[in-house]
């Protein structure tokens, strides 16, 4: 049967990955039990739960089995800050979740009553416009049923993962996290309620955001699970409701807005998208999708229309391809800059 001495000898050959000293010299063995050639161990290490732990786990098991044990059970605990310092490590500061930094970051949820009204287009262009105004901006594409932000912004790469941390992709100065980064080959996903909230929560706590003045949330349309989760999670979030100018669309959007009011979220205002088409020759506005929806919605929500965005496509820039981002000199790009100004004015 394997002896305690043999186990300790084996552990002398394994270095704690963070502190680069062997486990015995570190006093990392909190508990050691041997029963019928089965070893169970409790170790204190610098960063339990990290990729480092996974690597260490394997080394410890190999070393002890190499010394003759049949099986090895392991538990890990975090080393105290005093112990860490004693061995030349640095006390690890608990990273604050973004949710605890509401004093620094304004959360803006972009919602709509139904799909296809341009909610994602408004989200990405507002984020880009705020960044063009010198603000530090992030966007979370939480529209799990139709994540489109990476494509819209012309993002080719995926995010970087290091250990447990996730780093957003930067595009037009905007830090981007999308559900799309976590789904491969575009396979449809069925997300269940709690799973959605968990995923979103991870975006707030596990993602290594740079400082943020604004975090834009592109929510799924309607008043579903995710919208509800966000309302609960972000009590201080502000909202922009997107609608088309058709009065019926505005009526549906009012429901999304009504939830904001019920949960005491401040509504910054309404964006009326596809508001009109400007005839290039006559310069006249043609109200293809109806008229008045934005104002009706704003009235219902006791709010205001922040912008009316006409129909129009961005110009395609082959060198900097982003199919849905309007250039800052494009007439619609300028409207988004005005929208950004209004948002800044209302939130600072
Ligand atoms: N002002 C506009 N002029 C022309 N096309 C627009 C405008 N706004 C949005 N679109 C187009 O309308 C389509 C729907 O837009 P978008 O995906 O932003 O809507 P959405 O409300 O986010 O939809 P979903 O919730 O279904 O993802 C896209 O093809 C987009 O390029």
TrEMBL record:
Keywords on record: ATP-binding, Hydrolase, Iron, Iron-sulfur, Metal-binding, Nucleotide-binding
Q: Which CDD domains match?
A: Mrp_NBP35
What the entry lists under Gene3D superfamilies is as follows: Fe-S cluster assembly (FSCA), P-loop containing nucleotide triphosphate hydrolases
Q: Which PROSITE patterns match?
A: MRP
Query: Residue ranges of the MIP18 family-like domain?
Result: 4-67
Q: Which sites bind ATP? A: 113-120
One Pfam family of this chain: ParA
Spell out the coiled coil positions from the record.
none
Spell out the molecular function terms from Gene Ontology. ATP binding
Of which family is this protein a member? In the C-terminal section; belongs to the Mrp/NBP35 ATP-binding proteins family. Belongs to the Mrp/NBP35 ATP-binding proteins family.
Q: What does this protein do?
A: Binds and transfers iron-sulfur (Fe-S) clusters to target apoproteins. Can hydrolyze ATP.
Assembly notes:
Homodimer.
Record protein name field: Iron-sulfur cluster carrier protein
């Amino acid at each position: 049967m394997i002896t305690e001495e043999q186990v300790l000898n084996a552990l002398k050959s394994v270095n704690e990955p963070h502190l680069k000293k062997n486990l015995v010299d570190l006093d990392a063995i909190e508990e050691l039990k041997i029963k019928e050639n089965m070893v169970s161990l409790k170790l204190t290490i610098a960063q339990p739960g990290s990729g480092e732990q996974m690597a260490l786990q394997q080394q410890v098991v190999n070393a002890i089995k190499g010394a003759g044990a049949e099986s090895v059970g392991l538990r890990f605990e975090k080393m105290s800050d005093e112990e860490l310092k004693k061995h030349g490590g640095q006390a690890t500061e608990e990273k604050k979740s973004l949710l605890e930094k509401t004093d620094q970051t304004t959360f803006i949820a972009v919602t709509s009553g139904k799909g296809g009204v341009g909610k994602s287009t408004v989200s990405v262009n507002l984020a880009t416009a705020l960044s063009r105004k010198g603000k530090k901006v992030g966007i979370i594409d939480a529209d799990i049923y139709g994540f489109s932000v990476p494509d819209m912004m012309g993002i080719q790469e995926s995010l970087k993962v290091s250990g447990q941390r996730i780093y957003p992709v930067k595009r037009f100065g905007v830090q981007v996290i999308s559900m799309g980064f976590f789904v491969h080959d575009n396979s449809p996903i069925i997300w269940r309620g709690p799973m959605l909230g968990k995923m979103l929560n991870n975006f707030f706590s596990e993602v290594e955001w740079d400082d943020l003045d604004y975090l834009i949330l592109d929510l799924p349309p309607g008043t579903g699970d995710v919208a509800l989760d966000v309302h609960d999670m972000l009590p201080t979030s502000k909202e922009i409701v997107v609608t088309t100018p058709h009065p019926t669309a505005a009526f549906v959007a009012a429901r999304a807005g009504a939830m904001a009011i019920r949960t005491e979220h401040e509504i910054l205002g309404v964006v009326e998208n596809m508001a009109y088409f400007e005839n290039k020759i006559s310069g006249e506005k043609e109200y293809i999708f109806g008229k008045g929806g934005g104002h009706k919605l704003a009235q219902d929500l006791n709010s205001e229309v922040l912008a009316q965005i006409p129909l129009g496509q961005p110009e395609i820039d082959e060198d900097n391809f982003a199919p849905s981002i309007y250039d800052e000199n494009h007439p619609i790009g300028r409207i988004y800059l005005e929208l950004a100004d209004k948002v800044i004015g209302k939130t600072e």
